[in-house]
Structure formats: structure tokens, C-alpha cells
Amino acid sequence: DASALDDEFARTIADDLRIEPRDWMPDGYRKTLVRQIAQHAHSEIIGMQPEGNWLTRAPSLRRKAILMAKVQDEAGHGLYLYSAAETLGVERAELTEKLIEGKQKYSSIFNYPTLTYADVGTIGWLVDGAAICNQVPLCRSSFGPYARAMIRVCKEESFHQRQGYELLSTMMRGTDAQRAMVQESVDRWWWPALMMFGPPDDQSPNTEQSMEWRIKRHTNDELRQRFVDMSVPQAKALGVTFPDPDLIWNPDRGAHDFGEPDWSEFTEVIKGNGAANAERIANRRAAHENGAWVREAATAFAARGQESTR
Ligand code: ACO
């Protein structure tokens, strides 16, 4: 009966075991996962655009090959995640539809434009760095398919983070103009990167329940703090600064104090009013519509294969 199923679910969570697609789960758990995994998948797919913008203008063949590999990895991450969402009974087509109708969110970070080539490095270092910080604990998320997808995603994100850092450190060994370009880029991306972790804990409607269900393992503020502490020594090694006058080591807490991101900007960006929201969605919609013939052909081909094996 219902309460036995509920107990079984609660025990699985308490024992730190995984919930699998065929297991009974509360409706709210399923809904939360679909929301988070869909948002995550959309972020990977939309996330191809800011860097894709520089593919044809990469400064060398080596940089172009690296960037192409990275952008393709993001497409792969989107596919693993849509597959994980499908195990919960939703269709990828339906999720894509919701994305291009503006009914489902994707990460705020991808609504900022990439103005210089240094942005490719900064996105790798800070944006993918923040993504890793947020996603490593998701490898232990209570839902099996999501947790397993995260393992491979995190390995690939680590490569992305290092290529970004390597790109920036190469530029920092270059000319004064290149160093200035790196600093200007870091100044633009620092605050939006901190916003990737979501609203402060006391304004995060989902955190408490998601922690109870062990979908999330840490709160938004805990991960933001971890990211700041991790990034400060890296910035020092690189020779750049962060645009935050309140950023300072606090020996009593054994952590850095830092300023408050502009949460009104965050709210505007997730409402659709960021610099690049309209462009990102228009591009995604066009790619989806232009790809309709490929999906139709693949479906017809698969149907023919089934007939011939009958
Ligand atoms: N960008 C867009 N929307 C956000 C962001 C953000 N940076 N942070 C929070 N939100 C949304 C939440 O999805 C939620 O939306 P809702 O209206 O559907 O409920 C709302 O703001 C309130 O936030 P929270 O209650 O804190 O939501 P949640 O518990 O889901 O935590 C978080 C947000 C931390 C982003 C979580 O969903 C998560 O860990 N997601 C997986 C990681 C991910 O999506 N990464 C994508 C970017 S990284 C990359 O692709 C390189």
C-alpha cells in the first residue's frame, strides 16, 4: 500500500542508496528532478552558443580544435541529461518545446555575451569551474540516472576548466594588451559566475526539500563559498583580481568573506531580460526547426529497419 511504498522510498534515501526509474517515488520528487534535470540539460545545449560564437574566429588551429571539442562535449552533456530526464517519463521533444516556448529555465550565465577571445578562457576557468563545484556533489545525487550521468560530465568539465585556465595563462604571458583583455573579461564574468549557484539560501524555495531528498547535497550558499575559496588562489597564480572590494580572507571562519551579487540583475536575467536571452532562444528555435527534416528522416529510417527484421 501507499505508506509501505513511502517507507521504502524514505529508507532508500536514508540508507544513501539510489532511487531507480522503476522504483516508486513521490510525485514531488519526480517533478523536482524533471525540473532540475531539464533545466540542466537546456543549459548544456544553450551553453554551446556563447563559445560557438568564437569558433570561426579562433586565433590558431590548435585553439579552434580545442574549442570545437569543448562545444561538442556540451552537446553530449545535454544528451546524457535529456536521457536521464526521459527515464522519469518525459520526452526530450516535449522538454525542447518548453525551452523554446520560454516555459522552462536554463542557467542565467548563458545570457551574457562573449565579447573577446579571452571570454573563451574565462568561461572555461570560472563558468566551468563553478559548474564542477556544483556538479561534483550531484554525482552522489539520490536519483541513479542523474548521478551516473554526472560522473562523465564532471570528468569532461575538468578538461574544460583546465583548457580555460591554460588559455588565460598563455595570454597573461603575452602583451600588456592581452593581460588587460583577460582582466576585463574576468571583471565581467565574476559576478554572473557567482549567480550560477542560485539565489541565497533564505530565498531558495527548493533547497530544503531537495536536500531532504538528497537530490542536492549542499545548499546554494555553501557551494558559492566553496567556489570563491577555490578561485582566489587560482586568480593569484594567474595574476588577475576579482572586482569585489569586500573579498578578503577571514581567519576566524577559515574562508573568504565576499560581497553580495546584484540579485536584481539575476532576477531580470532569469525572467528573460538578460543581454542575450532573446538571441539564445531564437537561435535554439531556428536550429530545432531547421533540424526537423533530420528527425523525420531518422524516424522513417528506424521504422524501415523494424519492418525488415519482421
Ligand atoms: N539560472 C537560472 N535559473 C536558476 C538559477 C540560475 N543560475 N539558479 C536558480 N534558478 C532557478 C531554479 O531553477 C528555480 O526555478 P523554479 O522557478 O523552476 O523553481 C528558482 O530559480 C529558485 O532557485 P532554487 O530554489 O535555489 O532552485 P534549485 O534548488 O533547483 O537550485 C541550482 C538551483 C543550484 C542551479 C540547481 O537546480 C542545480 O544544481 N542544478 C543543476 C546544475 C545546473 O543546472 N547547471 C547548469 C549550468 S552549468 C553548465 O551547464 C556548464
Automatic annotation (TrEMBL):
One Gene Ontology term from the biological process aspect of the record? phenylacetate catabolic process
A Pfam family this chain is assigned to: PaaA_PaaC
Q: What is this protein called?
A: 1,2-phenylacetyl-CoA epoxidase subunit PaaA
Supply the NCBIfam families for this chain.
Answer: PA_CoA_Oxy1
Gene Ontology annotations for the cellular component aspect, listed alphabetically: cytosol
Q: Which organism is it from?
A: Gordonia westfalica
UniProt GO MF annotations: phenylacetyl-CoA 1,2-epoxidase activity
Lineage of the source organism? Bacteria, Bacillati, Actinomycetota, Actinomycetes, Mycobacteriales
Q: Which InterPro entries does the UniProt entry name for this protein?
A: Aromatic_CoA_ox/epox, Ferritin-like, Ferritin-like_SF, PaaA, PaaA_PaaC
